[in-house]
Amino acid sequence: MTNLPFRLPECGRPAAVRIEAFTIVAGPQQGSLDASIYSCTDHAPDAVTAIEAADMEAHVVPMAPDIDRACGSIHIYPTGNLASDDRHPRWCDRKDCERRGEHRSPARNVDTGSPEAVIVDVALVQNVHPAAEPQISLTGIDGAGAAEPVAVHLLLSIGQARTLRYRLATLIDASKGGHR
Ligand SMILES: [Zn+2]
Ligand SMILES: [Zn+2]
To answer: Residue 125 phi/psi, 5° resolution?
Structure first.
């Protein structure tokens, strides 16, 4: 079974609606349909509240006429984020890992809200080899001044990334000091 991020009301009476639970993803792509929850009319609002409290999106849809479910029953989609699947780390976006040879989290753009000369993305990656450790992937694309944009790609161990975090914090603090 799976560890659901929400607790649902269940009374066992015949369900009247089906509630689709989506994981919300940042960016233009559609959220992932992860579960269908069946609910009676009395409990549908509570079920929606529980799903939304877990930072998921809930869409109430009519039940297909030939479907007979009890209030509180759940269908977990095997390809969704709620399916228990040991093949992927929790943070993996589960997109084509075998072909690309690594698990990958969605890339986070290092966005300061102002125009910058270098575009920087960070992500967690991990080789699909069972013994592989997660690493931080850091990509920088420098489009300023060069005829061809220059891309820099670094793979850091988690230990290096942790140390880098402290180094950066120290340097950022120092940068506020001004001139002596
Ligand atoms: Zn109910
Ligand atoms: Zn994966």
So the answer is: -135, 160
CA 92 – ligand 2 centroid, Å? 5
Ligand 2: centre distance to CA 43 (Å): 35
Considering every ligand atom shown, identify the ligand nearest to the alpha carbon of residue 38 and give its number: 1
Domain ranges in the chain are: 17-76, 97-175
DSSP-assigned states of every residue in 72-137: T-EEE-TTSTTS--TTS-TT---SSHHHHTEEEPPPEE---SS--SEEEEEEEEEESSTTPPPEEE
By the 8 A CB rule, do 25 and 31 touch? yes
- 0.85 exceeded by the pTM? no
Q: Measure Cα distances from 3 to 68, 85, 97, 134, 177 in Å.
A: 25, 11, 23, 23, 48
Q: What tens digit of pLDDT does each residue of 106-132 get?
A: 999 998 999 888 889 999 999 988 788
Q: In angstroms, rounded to a whole number, what is the distance separating the alpha carbons of residues 105 and 110?
A: 15
